[in-house]
Amino acid sequence: MRKIFVFIAVISFQQIIAQKTISGFTEKSAAEQIALEQKFDGFISAEKIGATIKELSAKPHHISSPGGKEVAEKILAKYKSWGWDAKIETYNVLFPTPKTRVLEMTAPSVYKALLKEPGLKEDATSNQDGQLPTYNAWSADGDVTGDLVFVNYGLPSDYDELEKLGTDVKGKIVITKYGKSWRGIKPKVAYEHGAIGCIIYSDPKDDGYYQGEVYPKGAFKNEYGVQRGSVMDMVIYPGDPLTPGIGSIPNTKGLERSEAPTILKIPVLPISYHDAKPLLESLDGAVAPDDWRGALPFTYHVGGTNKTKVHLKLEFDWSIKPCYDVIAMIKGNIYPDEWVIRGNHHDAWVNGADDPISGQSALLEEARAIGELVKTGWKPKRTLVFCAWDGEEPGLLGSTEWAEDHIKELQQKAVLYINTDDYSRGFFNASGSHALENFMYEIAKDVKDPQTDVSLFDRSKAADALRATSATAKKNALQKKSLTLGALGSGSDYSSFLQHDGVPSLNLGFGGEGSGGEYHSIYDSYDDFSKFKDPGFIYGAALSKVAGRTALRMADADILPFDFRSLHKTVSSYVGELIELTNQLRESTAVENELIKNKVYQLANDPSKNLKAPTTKEEVPFIDFSPLQNAVASLEKATNHVNEVWTKSLTNTANADAFNQQLYKAEQQLLLNNGLPRRSWYKHSLYAPGFYTGYGVKTMPGVREALEQRNFKEAQEQITLAADAINKLSSYLNAIQ
Length: 737
Hints:
By secondary structure, the chain is of the alpha/beta class. It has 4 domains: 1-35, no CATH class; 44-94 and 323-452 and 487-514 and 530-556, Aminopeptidase (3-Layer(aba) Sandwich), CATH 3.40.630; 97-318, Glucose Oxidase, domain 1; 564-734, Transferrin receptor-like, dimerisation domain (Transcription Elongation Factor S-II, Chain A).
């Protein structure tokens, strides 16, 4: 009886494999792919991922440091030992490091900031030599003294609020909180408003004891922790500031440093909330608005009253440094000139166990497992290119220089770029090119969450339902039957591939249950990671399985699994959002102007405060969205057409190569010839980092940001250009037979 039961179970399992379909695979090749992925999973080891995290985060390893070169060479050796054809490609890039850092309060009392994170006995690597000091890369040199003004998160809207309070930052030094936007936006906006210096701190309400126990007892930022980081104006362009649009290889003629628009014009320094406390506590002037107040034990004021003065002095070494990209390949045995690219950076601000070594270790485990598959006789149909980028932290240096250097080759060969960065335990998240939504849905349904043993998709769906704020939203979340990819902004190495080269791209990760305050500090260590981020490294193994499947399926698909109908649906929703945004702007402008006209602001406030009334705004004119609406309608027909061709091609793969090349090159049709206004490096018509959000994405950015900045003439111009790009894609898809 037992033997019969086992036999039936085996037959049933084989039948499941035979019946299961995978987009882009024939029935026969799907069964082979499922068997391959089961072998792949069997090679993945959470224990090995943990060991790699410990090994590669053992020393500080920022770009150009001895530790950074050592990590690159270790990664290279690993690839070679696993049978990959691997090399290091070196670029010569500008990278500033601090020589002088002084921050002191000179009035009403004297305080000199520590600007130092202490080592901890509970953290074995927190007191090592070779650590970069706490600083913001791409700050200007400067020696400035001025009144201090608290500007909340340093967003444009915060300066609007200061204007209402009668507080000006011109000629003054601002102090701003980390959060709500990428850090580089804060000094950028401060400079635009006339500030002469910028200090950034992490308030404990956002990142400290207000959230939970602090490190080392808990995961959250202690009073001395500091978030290092780049403040390069990456929304203009990422990469080496001196070589925009071209790889920084020998004999490349670049800009002078004074000409580089991505290097800031004022000094900027990050500090701990220990150092921020005496500065903020000394401020007087207007009490800060309610939603500006943090968790430090005093009343928050905005300052700017000639009471609190600070002195900020910064000087940097602006030398050219080597940037080591590790590039490893396994050549495809059928389509060697079609590349599936997988990347994660290896440089850190200090030891970087979480950022980036967690993601790098998951990637390396995929590479090791693929090496084991090759030993069994398997070869990928398409070439696999695995990359360990250097210089991501200062501004996506390594990936950008490589993508700029190889742009012509990538636009011919790159099928997909798959990115990861740091991860922690929690929920699966995926963003990227929207023609790949169904492709990623199938993978998210196939990989199990290691804590709950349900699919990654089902666990994320349950989390969405719990986070929903209404019964209807909860019900809709539970009934969801497809994965929605997020749109890509910036902040990691996919940017150059998607937004400059037009290569289809994905960014994959886990998170949501590993929160903490170690980010970019000396406490981003193996001790912290193994205790608070991913004990047992089980989500590292899950990341290897999901990203590995993504690479393997794209490498071996008979017909590449692009479904442009999802892209059409997404673009249609973006156009609807833009129309709604315009209507909201029109309505809010009318209401605001009515309030100003009737002197409501003056009447509602205490006259003794002498608050400044805002000025009336230009009425929103008629904006013609019909070019975009017509383009979306044409795109729907084109995507339905190419889907019919796709379905037929799967039953007859004789001309698959030519058809597949047309599919993966389609993304390039969405590039704008002249790029976005005031930042021509960004060429994608659908996705870009926001000019005032940094990492955060702006979809259909040319139109959306023109509306948000109330540049209505430019908005109408950008509608035409975006419609032209969508129509270009439609014509391209319609021509596919």
